[in-house]
Amino acid sequence: VPMVAPGNVQVHVINSTLAKVNWDTVPLKTVRGHLQGYKVYYWKVQSLSRRSRRHVEKKILTFRGNKTFGMLPGLEPYSSYKLNVRVVNGKGEGPASPDKVFKTPEGVPSSPSFLKITNPTLDSLTLEWGSPTHPNGVLTSYILKFQP
After folding, report:
1. For 30, which DSSP code?
2. Any residues with CB less than 8 A from the CB of 67 and at least 6 apart, and which?
3. Cα 116 to the chain's mean position, in Å?
4. Which residues contact 139 (CB under 8 A, 6 or more apart)?
5. Residues 100, 117: one domain?
6. Which of 11, 31, 50, 110 is close enough to 102 for a disulfide, judged by CB 3.0 to 4.6 Å?
7. Does residue 2 belong to any structural domain of this protein?
8. Looking at the structure, do residues 73 and 130 belong to the same domain, yes or no?
9. What are phi and psi of 91, to 5 degrees?
10. Which residues make beta-bridge pairs with 103?
11. 87 with 141, same domain?
């Protein structure tokens, strides 16, 4: 299997759901075989809005050939992630690079979880709503739009 981990791993967060990861290629003599590509392991550590930790599910993206970057789509907004990179040959994976931590920025919240109309009269009514299932950040206000 390969002997060394990719170096100089850097993460550039593009938006609340997408990041780009860069790394330096390993010297070909340390691959000890045919270079197949690089694997990026990444996982969500925690949501920054809920502070609750959950079961960690590692995701893996494979980038074929002698690439030095890859895109990580489908990230959750306002979350903390870790990742590492490994080189792959025909026999297996080399050692992991040191873990890199990165955070995604706030994203647009989902809709309120419910909306109820109560106490309707001829000239007024009362509205009740629930917090969004996915706040994707710090909620600062709600905007009510209506038309007669």
Report:
1. G
2. 37, 38
3. 34
4. 109, 131, 132
5. no
6. 11
7. no
8. no
9. -95, -25
10. 80
11. no
Which residues of the chain carry a pLDDT beneath 50?
Answer: none
Tell me the residue range of the domain where 56 lies.
7-104
pLDDT at residue number 52:
63
Q: Which amino acid is at 89?
A: N
| Structural domains in the chain (count) | 2
- Is the same domain home to 112 and 91? no
Q: 122 and 79: one domain?
A: no
Q: Residue 56 has what pLDDT?
A: 78
Structure token digits, residue 94: 């080399």
- 79 CB neighbour count, 10 Å cutoff: 21
**pLDDT confidence of residue 106:** 96
44 and 69 within one domain: yes
Please list the alpha-helical segments (H only) found in 28-125: none
What's at 64, amino acid-wise?
Answer: R
Q: Which residues of 54-64 are buried (b: 16+ CB within 10 A; e: fewer)?
A: eeeeeeebebe
User: What's the pLDDT score for residue 17?
Assistant: 97
Q: What is the DSSP letter of 91?
A: T
Q: What is the CA radius of gyration of the chain?
A: 22
